[in-house]
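Q: Focus on the shape:
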Amino acid sequence: MNTSPVLAVRPLGFPWETADPFLFCAYHDDAYPKGNPDMGPAASLAGRDIGQDFSRKDGWSMYHGDKVPGFPAHPHRGFETVTIVRKGLIDHSDSLGASARFGGGDVQWVTAGRGIVHAEMFPLLAGEAENPLELFQIWLNLPARNKMAQPHFTMFWNEQVPRRVLADAAGRHTEVAVIAGRFGDTAPLAPPPDSWAAQADADVAIWTLRMEAGATFSLPPAALAGTQRTLYFFKGGSAMVGDRQVQGPAAVSVQADVEVAIAAGEDTCEFLLLQGRPIGEPVVNYGPFVMNTQQEIAQAMQDYRRTQFGGWKFGDSAPVHGRETPRFARYPDGREERPGVAPTPA
């Protein structure tokens, strides 16, 4: 009888494979060079398939951008994006009329629901230094009853994200950033109202773990039976997960209903944890649309052609905010936020 808490270990590709209720996770780690006056790379773009550049040539990609790296205006329906920016900045604009600049630990949570168009550009502000970018974008599915919910945009600023720092018996530390799902007595910020993560019986958790070299940590059991849990070991050479020696990078599926011991190896180890009870419904996707039936996909395409999901309110399909603009969020109702500053009313 196998009593190991580790169910499977798989290598990490791009994007990362996930389990229901998650659709996938894209991990972007780009060593962008110095920026030019247009906030693009001060480097030749020769040899890149501009508009479709996922090459990682010289350690970075342009993705769908042609001057500034990133993802110009594109539609979504039927799911959510949770974007955790660890380094660098994202300039967001959307068909709701919202816009933002965020990064350095900030989290953006967008419920696409019945339809949204947004742009996610990566401005390279530093002209005299490198512009590293590191982020996760997690696609979280919506149940059928919420596929056509009102789109929703919100920010969790780095200064607001709950974090716990725990010391083991040897005094080595593990930091847990709590984006979704309670960690012990540490409660997360509230997810959007129509999210699967907002359902009491969904047991969704999104945490990042940063373990000092040699640190030990006990991952507590999930709250509910039926939860699925995966640890994405994305930085560090090796770690013990339960009774398994794991070489990074790797995805480690673990039993959710038991405590799992983790021990970092000889260097700092970092993990992304994704967990949740499965939605358990059919998933039919076509590019940026994720629904339950092929007919709903066809309807999404028809609706987008007809309405553009509210239309694009910006003069450029790849807008970037001013070079001197600090982190901010402007919501569809006109309300504005800046981290550490009282919000401006609508």
